[in-house]
Amino acid sequence: MKIAISSTGPTLDAPVDPRFGRSVSFLVIDMADGSFVAMDNGGQHSPQGAGIQAAEALARIGVAAVITGHCGPKAFEVLTAAGIQLFVGAEGTVAGALERFRSGKWKASNGADVNGHWA
């Protein structure tokens, strides 16, 4: 299973980026072996639809879950349609968010936690 965590940098020590659609990058982690790759968020600077573009890109590479600080309604719809679970409220480092996910104590979101066009 692959998961993606919104990140401000390319390492596990990087802070979680609180913005899903406008995140700098995503760390895509293979939960089977712990390997990861940094993926630039190509839609980060789009005037509109950044969250939709990010969600579609993650769906294309087959992630099963996304961990981020906040997610808007349009991105949530795309993630849900692709069968991707969303976990919001992440803060601290990517490594910390990953450990929280591994612990199994994080509940998947059942909706967006911010309005569209959130900072």
- Which strand order does the major sheet show? 3-2-1-4-5
CATH superfamily: Dinitrogenase iron-molybdenum cofactor biosynthesis domain
CATH C-level class: Alpha Beta
Tell me the quaternary state. single chain
CATH names the topology as Nucleotidyltransferase, domain 5
Tally of domains = 1
Query: What is the number of beta strands?
Result: 5
How much helix is in the residues?
Answer: 10-25%
What is the gyration radius calculated from CA atoms? 12 Å
Unreliable stretches covering 5 or more consecutive residues: none
Counted by DSSP, the helix tally is 3
CATH architecture: 2-Layer Sandwich
- Mean residue pLDDT: 92
Report the sheet with the most strands, covering strand number, pairing sense and barrel closure. 5 strands, mixed
Shape: globular
| String of helices and strands | EEEHEHEH
Describe the structure.
With 119 residues, the chain is an alpha/beta fold. The protein has one domain (2-102): Nucleotidyltransferase, domain 5, CATH 3.30.420. The protein contains three helices and five strands; from the N terminus they run βββαβαβα. It has helices at 50-60, 73-81, 94-102; strands at residues 2-7, 25-30, 36-40, 65-67, 85-87. A five-stranded mixed beta sheet has the order 3-2-1-4-5, sandwiched between helices. Strand 4 (65-67), helix 2 and strand 5 (85-87) form a beta-alpha-beta unit. The longest helix has 11 residues, at 50-60. The radius of gyration is 12 Å and the shape is globular. The chain starts with a strand and ends in a 17-residue tail after the last helix.
